[in-house]
């Protein structure tokens, strides 16, 4: 919900309007690095964000950027005002003077229309946060250049305020990224190819016309780098011979490891199969124990998903041409035993505490299954078994989604002003 307060975040003052500078300001109104682009980028990222804490951050800053848009728009309008009645001023920018009536519009300083192509939205929170840090850095530089080209004291004060907030936002996004605890180059879920990820390709070799050199620095020498000279002339190799000039590594493991990896994959699949079959028996009890309808429906939905997950695991065994045999999963047995105790204790509790305890037990199960599917999928990727990777990825995504839905229900229960009505 948005509410317009008839007061600028920073009160602007323009003593000497400058239409040409007003045109420059439009870069921060409707340009690629402007306030509207930032407001839309962060707000849409926020709408897509399943992490409630970082969603709040994105919506807070996205909303502030709308306030900045209002400040920039007011500044630009005041500087462009002479275009409304002064012929000489209007000639400086006929598009604004004639088509826009001397006011602002969603164009950049060159008259190009604003476009959603400016937005960087991937749906991967850590990737989007990195994009946001870069966006704030670019906006800071634009404000800095505007300040350098401005002679009006009041305008410079407003621009200084806006420029400073870009740094504040960079710090907030950087802190949010750090708080996720992910390694700097851990992007997505699929691991990069070992050895290949540490190779630096020297793709511009020889002496240039202007004396350019093949430079060396921390980006291509020292640990963990391996320099590959002129890769266009190298053969792609799976395992270079000892002492041979470094070539492009195509595989992350030797074929000799395949048999051992396959054995580990089979063990993981057998463990998962037994875990899911146990859960099929436990979920109806969890449905019955849930007090609120939302939680009941969530457990019922996951029961159907679990049935499909068992079928996917059976399909994995068929692809591997081995019988679908389950191996006793002691981890799941322990979690479900603990769940039985929570259900019994919940009979003596009120609705909200009972459901919160049940959700806690269910999330432990989800995280156990997520780790199992992730491990099995990574092994299948290493063995280049794309069909199995696809099957396990679908089940992994379902477990992750179930965990997020449980988290949402938990937060709703904890913040509810009154006890939810029990299901009749």
TrEMBL record:
Binds 1 Ca(2+) ion per subunit. It comes from the Bacteria. Residues 255-282 form a coiled coil. Its cofactor is Ca(2+); Mn(2+). The keyword Metal-binding applies. InterPro entries: DUF892_YciF-like, Ferritin-like, Ferritin-like_SF, Mn_catalase, Mn_catalase_dom, YciF. The keyword Coiled coil applies. Ca(2+) binds at residues 56, 60, 211. Mn(2+) binds at residues 35, 65, 68, 136, 169. SUPFAM superfamilies: Ferritin-like. GO terms for molecular function: metal ion binding. Keywords: Calcium, Coiled coil, Manganese, Metal-binding. Belongs to the manganese catalase family. PANTHER family: PROTEIN YCIF (PTHR30565:SF9). This is Non-heme manganese-containing catalase. It comes from Rhodoplanes roseus. The lineage of its organism: Bacteria, Pseudomonadati, Pseudomonadota, Alphaproteobacteria, Hyphomicrobiales.
């Amino acid at each position: 919900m948005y509410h317009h307060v008839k007061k600028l975040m920073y009160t602007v003052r323009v003593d000497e309007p400058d239409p040409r500078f007003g045109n420059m300001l439009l870069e921060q109104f409707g340009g690629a690095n402007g306030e509207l682009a930032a407001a839309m980028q962060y707000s849409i990222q926020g709408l897509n964000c399943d992490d409630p804490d970082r969603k709040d951050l994105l919506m807070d800053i996205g909303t502030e950027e709308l306030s900045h848009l209002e400040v920039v728009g007011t500044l630009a309008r005041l500087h462009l005002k002479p275009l409304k009645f002064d012929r000489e001023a209007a000639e400086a920018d006929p598009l604004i003077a004639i088509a826009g009536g001397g006011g602002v519009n969603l164009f950049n300083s060159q008259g190009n229309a604003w476009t959603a192509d400016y937005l960087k939205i991937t749906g991967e929170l850590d990737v989007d946060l990195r994009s946001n840090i870069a966006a704030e850095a670019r906006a800071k530089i634009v404000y800095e250049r505007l300040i350098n080209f401005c002679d009006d004291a009041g305008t410079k004060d407003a621009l200084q305020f806006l420029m400073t907030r870009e740094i504040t936002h960079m710090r907030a996004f950087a802190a949010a990224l750090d708080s996720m605890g992910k390694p700097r180059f851990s992007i997505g879920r699929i691991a990069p190819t070992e050895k290949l990820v540490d190779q630096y390709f020297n793709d511009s070799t020889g002496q240039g016309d202007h004396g350019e050199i093949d430079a060396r620095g921390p980006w291509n020498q020292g640990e963990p780098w391996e320099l590959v000279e002129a890769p266009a002339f190298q053969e792609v190799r799976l395992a270079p011979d000892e002492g041979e000039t470094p070539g492009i590594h195509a595989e992350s493991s030797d074929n000799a490891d395949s048999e051992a990896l396959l054995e580990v994959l089979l063990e993981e699949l057998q463990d998962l199969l037994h875990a899911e079959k146990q859960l099929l028996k436990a979920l109806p009890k969890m449905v019955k124990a849930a007090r609120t309808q939302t939680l009941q429906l969530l457990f019922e939905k996951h029961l159907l998903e679990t049935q499909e997950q068992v079928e996917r695991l059976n399909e994995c065994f068929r692809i591997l041409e081995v019988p679908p045999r389950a191996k006793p999963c002691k981890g799941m047995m322990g979690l479900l035993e603990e769940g039985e105790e929570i259900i019994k204790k919940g009979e003596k509790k009120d609705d909200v505490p009972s459901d919160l305890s049940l959700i806690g037990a269910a999330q432990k199960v989800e995280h156990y299954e997520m780790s199992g599917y992730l491990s099995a999928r990574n092994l299948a990727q290493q063995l280049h078994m794309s069909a199995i990777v696809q099957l396990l990825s679908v089940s992994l995504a379902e477990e992750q989604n179930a965990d997020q839905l449980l988290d949402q229900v938990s937060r709703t229960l904890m913040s509810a002003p009154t006890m939810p009505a029990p299901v009749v």
